[in-house]
Design a protein that fits this description.
Blueprint (H helix, E strand, L loop, with lengths): L4 H19 L12 E6 L5 E5 L6 E5 L5 E7 L3 E5 L6 E4 L5 E3 L12 E4 L11 E4 L7 E5 L1 H6 L17 E5 L5 E5 L8 E4 L2 E2 L25 E9 L12 E6 L7 E10 L9 H4 L5 E14 L3 E18 L16 H4 L3 E19 L4 E16 L11 E17 L3 E18 L5 E6 L7 E6 L7 E20 L3 E18 L7 E7 L2 E2 L5 E5 L8 E18 L4 E13 L1 H4 L5 H7 L14 H7 L17 E14 L6 E11 L4 H4 L1 H7 L2 E6 L13 E2 L9 H5 L11 E4 L7 E13 L2 E20 L26 E21 L7 E14 L20 E2 L6 E11 L3 E10 L4 E6 L10 E6 L4 E3 L1 E6 L1 E15 L2 E10 L10 E3 L2 E2 L2 E2 L4 E3 L11 E9 L1
Parallel strand pairs: 1-7, 6-9, 13-16, 24-28, 35-36, 37-40
Antiparallel strand pairs: 1-4, 2-3, 2-5, 5-6, 8-9, 10-15, 11-12, 13-14, 15-16, 17-18, 17-55, 18-19, 19-20, 20-21, 21-22, 22-23, 23-26, 24-25, 26-27, 27-31, 28-29, 28-30, 30-35, 31-32, 32-33, 33-34, 34-38, 38-39, 39-40, 40-41, 41-42, 41-43, 43-44, 44-49, 45-46, 47-48, 49-50, 50-55, 51-54, 52-53
Length: 1007
């Protein structure tokens, strides 16, 4: 190209050396750009110009000696591209893509294009061809603005459309809470990047901050242009993710004013009854959604603005039913009348406001500056439903505020993007009602599983958790390198300083436990759980975590057929709350004291019993100097694509890579909060539920305890009895996944197809286990666990370790015909076959059914259906009407449980971790194989006022056939050592996921 081959080789070596130097620098990872890259061939020495007539954005590149050119950092949009007379083309670039456009050949050749009346991000139409990215090892797909605007939708969460990509599952649970999951891993392993900035939640589960048990949206949908879903084998620039990565581009203003106003409404008159409402009557429910967006020029061709606002107000119906237990009858009939009166239908209130504002400035034809902010304000009632009555509900406040500054600079042979951001996100939760709480547990099961909780919510339902701090990242891209082909080399770093806070409970609402058995309810509680204030302590854990990382990525076009994607990243995190923690001396002394329980030998300490049971305390006792940060996370990301005929129509692709996530602070903070706000469990020695009085946690029942918090708070003043002790392993690691894929994509006419096989192995998931042991070191004796054998004069021992693993193989098949104005229709088909195993329910980080997480067997995962099929279609109809539908089918999710049916296991347990799948229901033809069935429909009528101004009316019918997609299970594993042949069935009086048949009405104005 411009320089000699010798110079190019030297420069490439310098780049690699710079990458290594960057990797060992003290502060450095990089932001995930949502921008597109355009590359291809033109006449050698030609000036390639890219121009957006809607915004004035202009970029240039000079084709090298072999005709190669590359232009980075292009916001997804429609562009005019030319490299001299006769080469002009109009193209649309999609989010986070690398597009190939050859300009030396006659127009249209050399690019995988789909003819379309492409849509600019803010809704202005420009006649152009959409270039599809096909030379990539990434497994996934792109969600277009047309899909967002037309596919039927229940939530206005823009992530809802991600399940049109094979391997993805978007869920709306019985409480209206939304979640996104990739493969068979939990939703915390996902990450969403908006305008190149991670939205990761560092404290709570959910993947995205604020998305844990929320009906809300992470971002206003009106402000999303399009987004890319990558299920595995992403490039090295993606961090803090081990399953699915979502990268979205927001809308921008243009040289013309354009906007939209909408309102959506439905209530209980426009929906069918839920299963429980068929007997208890329909409860009032209502849903309101409304908002607006406006974009336009500040300085024509130079500066533009875009603003958006959306609000959601829901009253969501919920069924209040007991948890299933191993009982053939109706367990609800055994509960007290006061509890039975709270069963049936209830309501969950929700209110959310979302704001977004953005200014972009084309400072020069090489410099672009963006400044944006997003705000989320949300309140909701949660906790009510299966296993929890309305009186034990929780009021939540969920706030998220972020600000971003971005500067992108383009040069002839390189491109740089600098980002500063600041985030402040927090969740506060408090019980709806003060006072005592009451939990009814199933006595015949040695594990005492909870049937239902009523009264005030558990003390641990009080939450105050937050993340706040700045981030700086920079990416530097060389796009003019040549050695055995063309190279685009990207280097990046990121530094983030985040203050994390967590209050895990409050000294209020003690929880009393009552036995329930086939004869009724015990007159006296057998246990109480409560939290106590310590003088001078607020019970809040806080830390300033520092996150560093670097990456290097080389996209190497060896020739017209073979492209190699070679990347590596390295991450490092410092968390003083974990590394500097010092185990309390009172705990160490108690561990080394004489074991007081029957069967212990003279001089035998409690630590000796733990050692006999395989617990090495040296792995958990911290002196403040024997722990290390989460470092050394080297992550190779390797991929290839091979274009069989050099025309981008038949491409074989594959890859292998490692991706690290992070341990949530919700887990790491427990050592601190359990020490500063002791949480005490006292067992009562009552005739129906005796306990060992030698244990400091076993005391006589005293009716005065029902006086509540004031009595219990003063009961153990100056003592430590009953107080839970959490100890984390001194060598904790960050969870990660190894990802492999091999597939082939094809372009057949207007159709895009792909068939891929993936293998994902995730390791080092975090889990808490019970540390208590019997004096002889056993974890099981006569089918019982050592709950009554805590640390002497202290309390139960909970250990935190790595160990949860998943093993998933998926076959991903997709076919898509994108929308074009000429054809007037689009469709997509996504099929996923999953074979998934796991050693623990991915949503259960408390694992008390076995002695260690390593003792759990691998069973069929309850995270993903074996078969899942999603199809969509959209069609332009006469008279300004358009319609679309969505079909979703999935086989039943297995039930993962500890099966107790009277057997005695070799380890002394009476239960064994088991997976069982209920029978499903029919769909049109065939057997009872489907656990989830849904068809949604929407029709929209446009009323043109003039030009681009129109009023529209939209009508959505969700779950057209009113299929009940049951969420709750009935369980009867068996008895006398014999397991039932069909131990798990759906509870057809319980909750459903998604919605009953519901009609929604929307009116809006676009201009």
């Amino acid at each position: 190209m411009k320089a000699s081959m010798h110079l190019k080789k030297k420069l490439l070596v310098s780049v690699i050396a710079a990458a290594v130097a960057t990797a060992i620098a003290p502060t450095m990872v990089m932001a995930q750009s949502a921008n597109a890259t355009l590359r291809g061939k033109a006449t050698p020495g030609a000036n390639v110009t890219v121009f957006n007539p809607q915004t004035g954005l202009t970029r240039h590149a000079t084709a090298g000696a072999d005709g190669s050119y590359t232009i980075n950092g292009l916001p997804p949009a429609s562009y005019q591209v030319d490299a001299g007379p006769g080469t002009e083309q109009n193209v649309t670039l999609t989010v986070a893509s690398t597009a190939t456009l050859n300009l030396a050949a006659p127009a249209g050749q050399g690019a995988a294009v789909t003819t379309a009346n492409a849509t600019k991000m803010e809704g202005v139409s420009v006649s152009a061809s959409t270039i599809q990215e096909v030379k990539t090892p990434e497994v996934g797909g792109t969600i277009s603005l047309h899909q967002i605007a037309t596919i039927p939708q229940a939530s206005r969460n823009f992530l809802e459309f991600a399940d049109t990509v094979p391997g993805m599952v978007f869920s709306v649970d019985a409480k209206g809470n939304t979640s996104l999951r990739g493969g068979a891993m939990n939703n915390s392993s996902t990450n969403v990047y908006i305008d190149g900035v991670s939205q990761k939640s560092y404290v709570k589960e959910g993947g995205v901050s604020g998305q844990n048990n929320s009906q809300g949206n992470p971002f206003p949908q009106l402000a999303i242009g399009e987004y890319k879903v990558i299920t595995s084998n992403y490039k090295a620039e993606y961090d803090q993710v081990s399953s699915a990565a979502i990268t979205a581009e927001t809308k921008s203003g243009t040289n013309e004013f354009h906007g939209e106003v909408f309102g959506t409404y439905t209530n209980d008159a426009f929906r069918n009854r839920t299963p429980i409402e068929k007997t208890s009557g329909k409860v009032d429910s209502e849903s309101k959604e409304y908002g607006f967006a406006l974009g336009g020029p500040i300085i024509k061709d130079k500066m533009h603005f875009f603003i958006a606002f959306e609000q959601k107000k829901f009253d969501t119906p919920i069924s209040v039913v007991p948890n299933s237990v191993n009982y053939a009858g109706d367990v609800s009939t055994l509960l007290p009348a006061s509890v039975q009166s709270e069963l049936g239908s209830a309501n969950l209130n929700f209110d959310e406001k979302l704001y977004f504002g953005k200014i972009d400035w084309e400072l020069t034809d090489r410099d672009r500056i963006e400044v944006s902010t997003q705000v989320r304000r949300e309140t909701q009632i949660s906790g009510i439903g299966t296993g929890t009555t309305p009186s034990a509900g929780v009021n939540n406040e969920n706030h998220d505020t972020r600000a971003i500054f971005k500067w992108a600079h383009s040069a002839d042979s390189w491109y740089n993007e600098l980002i500063f951001s600041y985030e402040n996100a927090y969740i506060q939760a408090n019980p709806l009602f003060a006072g005592n709480g009451y939990t009814y547990s199933w006595q015949p099961d040695v594990n005492n599983p909870t049937i239902i909780t009523t009264g005030s919510a558990d003390p641990r339902s009080t939450q105050n958790k937050s993340q706040e701090g700045p981030m700086v990242s920079d990416t530097f891209t060389f796009n003019d390198l040549e050695w055995q082909g063309d190279h685009v080399v990207k280097l990046g770093y990121k530094f983030k300083s985040i203050e994390l806070k967590a209050a895990d409970a409050a000294a209020q609402s003690p929880q009393f436990f009552y036995d329930v058995n086939p004869t009724g309810v015990s007159a006296e509680p057998w246990q109480v759980f409560y939290a106590s204030n310590l003088p001078g302590s607020d019970g809040v854990a806080k830390t300033h975590t520092r996150q560093y990382g670097v990456f290097a990525q080389d996209d190497w076009s060896v020739n017209d057929h073979l492209t190699l994607n070679l990347g590596v990243r390295w991450d490092y995190e410092v968390n003083p709350s974990y590394t500097n923690f010092v185990t309390s001396q009172r705990v160490i002394d108690a561990l080394n004291s004489q074991n007081p329980y029957a069967g212990a030998l003279p001089g035998q300490t409690y630590a000796d019993s733990l050692a006999a049971g395989g617990v090495n305390l040296n792995n958990y006792i911290s002196n403040g100097n024997n722990r290390h940060s989460f470092k050394g996370q080297w992550q190779p990301r390797l991929g290839f694509s091979y274009d069989l005929f050099g025309d981008e129509e038949h491409v074989i692709h594959g890859g292998a890579g490692r991706a690290y996530d992070r341990n949530l602070y919700d887990y790491l903070q427990t050592e601190v909060t359990k020490q500063s706000l002791p949480q005490t469990t006292l067992r009562f020695n009552i005739p129906s539920h005796p306990c060992d009085t030698a244990s400091s946690t076993c005391v006589p029942w005293n009716p005065a305890f029902l006086g509540g918090q004031n009595v219990l708070q003063n009961y153990l003043v100056g003592g430590n009895s009953g107080q839970e002790v959490d100890l984390l392993n001194n060598k904790l690691k960050a969870p990660y996944s190894d990802q492999y894929s091999l597939g082939m994509s094809n372009t057949v006419g207007d159709w895009l197809t792909d068939a891929t096989v993936t293998r994902v192995l995730s390791k080092d998931g975090f889990a808490f286990t019970l540390g208590n042991r019997y004096p002889n070191g056993a974890f099981w004796q006569d089918k019982s666990q050592p709950w009554n054998y805590p640390i002497p004069n202290v309390g139960g021992l909970i250990l935190g370790d790595n160990g949860i693993q998943t093993r998933t193989t998926q076959v991903l098949l997709s076919a898509q015909k994108p929308y074009t104005k000429e054809s007037g229709w689009s469709t997509s088909f996504a099929y996923t076959f999953s074979h998934a195993k796991q050693n623990r329910d991915i949503n259960e980080h408390y694992s008390f059914d076995e002695a260690t997480i390593g003792d759990y067997p691998y069973i069929t995962s309850n995270a993903v259906s074996k078969h899942r099929f999603v199809a969509t279609g959209a069609l332009d109809l006469p008279w300004g009407i358009s319609g679309s539908l969505k079909l979703t089918l999935a086989t039943p999710l297995p039930k993962n449980d500890s099966a107790c049916y009277g057997q005695l296991e070799a380890n002394g347990s009476g239960c064994v971790p088991t997976s069982a799948t209920p029978s499903g229901q029919k769909f049109l033809v065939g057997g009872d194989i489907w656990g989830y069935r849904d068809i949604d429909l929407q029709l929209t009528k446009d009323f043109i006022i003039s030009g681009d101004t129109k009023i529209y009316a939209r009508f959505d019918v969700l779950n057209v056939f009113n299929w009940a997609n049951y969420a709750d299970y009935n369980v009867n594993w068996g008895a006398d050592g014999v397991m039932n042949s069909n131990p798990v069935t759906y509870n057809k009086k319980g909750n459903i996921v998604y919605l009953p048949r519901t009609a929604r009405f929307t009116v809006g104005l676009k201009f």
